[in-house]
Amino acid sequence: MRVVYEAALAAEREGVGAALVTVVATEGSTPQKAGACMLVREDGVSVGTIGGGCVENEMVRRARLAITSRRPELASYELTADMAGEDGLVCGGRMQVFVNPLEPEPVLLVFGAGHVAVPLCRMAHLAGFHVEVTDDRVQFANAERFPDARRIVVDEVAAAAGQMALGPGAYAVVVTRGHKGDADALHAVLGRGLRYVGLLGSRPKMVHVIADLRERGVPPAELEKVHVPMGLAIGARTPEEIAVSILAELIAVRRGVPLDAVGPLKAPLPGRLRTAP
After folding, report:
1. CA angle 73-63-225, nearest 5°?
2. Full-model pTM
3. Which positions ≥6 away from 36 have C-beta within 8 Å?
4. pLDDT tens digit string along 61-105?
5. Residues 220, 141: one domain?
6. Which structural domain, as residue segments, surrounds residue 166?
7. How many CA atoms lie within 13 A of 91 on its CB side?
8. What is the CATH number of the domain that holds 146?
9. Is residue 270 part of a domain?
10. Under 8 Å between Cβ of 82 and 95
11. Domain for residue 129, yes or no?
């Protein structure tokens, strides 16, 4: 069991999605008893075992789905001949297995240290993101302006990206001061399997930046992953309001909420609070 937990900690450090699969209840003859567990990484590699055979193969599949959906699942299996398949594990018992996706601590990479970056980094830190920020201007990228940042890199975009946590669980927000900086930042992060990549800007800006990236050979499939303009449509105008709209989108992605389903919270009022028509 220790090796499973060590693998879980390693996945968290690497920012790799994973799920813990645990046998929570058994009845009759089963290959493993309650407490047996395994860790499944998002690439399908597993550590530990819940008994092998077709049940374990099925739970690897479900674990990978849970990693994507960010939703836990409780599954029940009867180990009958139908379930055994080619593996031949006909135990005759029952198993309940709990799949718990492990959410790595999210890392927010902010390219550009201007007016929007300051409130965004502050609020993202409060929301549980580890923040890294970069800019080539030390008067902007410094601890005084970004006291909550885990890492501040003062360098050109391409060099800075090599010093940042570009893992598969990271979120990148591009808010540099010009089209070239935006294109350089996107070129550095696309193709790295990041959870989210967003660009702040108008449609004309987007057209210029995307054209630049196409000339650099960035595949269309990667360009389609860029959220542009990023942020939710809440009528934001000030840097602080824009930061709120961006952070709201990041949270929706983190929690597995489809962006086209984002809307106001709604619930029916108790009968005594309803107003008459």
Report:
1. 110
2. 0.75
3. 22, 23, 48, 49, 50, 51
4. 999 998 887 789 998 877 765 544 444 445 567 888 999 998 778
5. yes
6. 107-260
7. 21
8. 3.40.50.720
9. no
10. no
11. yes
